[in-house]
């Protein structure tokens, strides 16, 4: 398991959300990139030096510090869309190889290189910027049905990372709430929401949503 590329955003106009810019256009970086905890959402700060988000209400901050997507899933989308997809094109900071990103358990921790430890926090939910960027009508529905969203991560231990760094899973919680399960529960399969309650590592706003929507419900097997 390793990083194929580390990707940092190049600001682009964002006509799809009416914002001044978007950082979804991520480009591979040569050499080391510093990773640190960005602090709470609302400032535009993210985990990688040189990167930022512009929709500060919905993106960035502690629980969305770093976004990872698997090269294997990009390859599957390449075949389906009939176009090349370079690492970073989905807006991911980390393009991985050999790592089951969507099968990762919420709260799972990855050591990357010698110093950095990241913790899986939640799935990516697609938005209009993502659809507009890829120039694919109906992309939000298509991406949602596929349920391979990639994972947002928190920064537990800061440091430098670079392409080629090994990735090691150093902690995995005992529950079975994966990135893919969380995504399905939050989108097309709300009857799965009660199963998320055991994942204490989910962001507080997701845990509060689960509590509001599942009071009195039993988990689906």
Report what the structure shows.
This protein has 221 residues and is of the alpha+beta class. The chain is built from five helices and twelve strands. The strands form three sheets. An eight-stranded mixed sheet has the order 4-1-7-6-10-9-8-12. Strands 2-3 form a two-stranded antiparallel sheet. The model has no long low-confidence stretch (mean pLDDT 95).
Overall mean pLDDT stands at 95
Radius of gyration: 17 Å
Low-confidence spans: pLDDT under 50, at least 5 residues? Answer: none
Amount of beta strand: 25-35%
Envelope shape: globular
Write the layout of secondary structure elements.
Layout: E1 2-9, E2 12-14, E3 19-22, E4 26-28, E5 33-35, E6 66-70, H1 71-81, E7 94-97, E8 109-112, E9 116-123, H2 128-134, H3 139-146, E10 151-157, E11 159-161, E12 167-171, H4 179-186, H5 204-214
Parallel strand pairs: 6-7
Antiparallel strand pairs: 1-4, 1-7, 2-3, 5-11, 6-10, 8-9, 8-12, 9-10
């Amino acid at each position: 398991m390793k990083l194929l590329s580390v990707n940092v955003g190049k600001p682009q106009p964002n006509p799809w959300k009416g914002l001044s810019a978007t950082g979804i256009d991520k480009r591979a970086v040569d050499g080391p990139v510093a990773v640190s905890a960005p602090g709470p959402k609302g400032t535009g700060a993210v985990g990688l030096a040189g990167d930022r988000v512009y929709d500060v209400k919905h993106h960035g901050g502690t629980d969305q510090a770093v976004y990872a997507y698997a090269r294997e899933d990009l390859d599957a989308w390449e075949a389906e869309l009939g176009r090349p997809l370079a690492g970073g094109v989905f807006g991911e900071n980390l393009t991985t190889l050999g790592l089951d990103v969507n099968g990762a358990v919420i709260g799972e921790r990855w050591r990357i290189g010698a110093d950095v430890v990241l913790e899986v926090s939640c799935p990516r939910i697609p938005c209009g910027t993502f659809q507009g960027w890829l120039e694919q009508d109906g992309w939000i529905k298509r991406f949602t049905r596929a349920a391979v969203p990639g994972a947002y991560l928190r920064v537990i231990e800061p440091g430098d990372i670079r392409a080629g760094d090994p990735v090691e899973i150093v902690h995995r919680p005992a529950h079975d709430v994966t990135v893919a399960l969380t995504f399905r529960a939050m989108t097309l399969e709300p009857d799965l929401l009660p199963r998320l309650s055991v994942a204490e590592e989910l962001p507080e706003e997701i845990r509060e949503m689960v509590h509001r929507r599942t009071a009195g419900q039993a988990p689906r097997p």
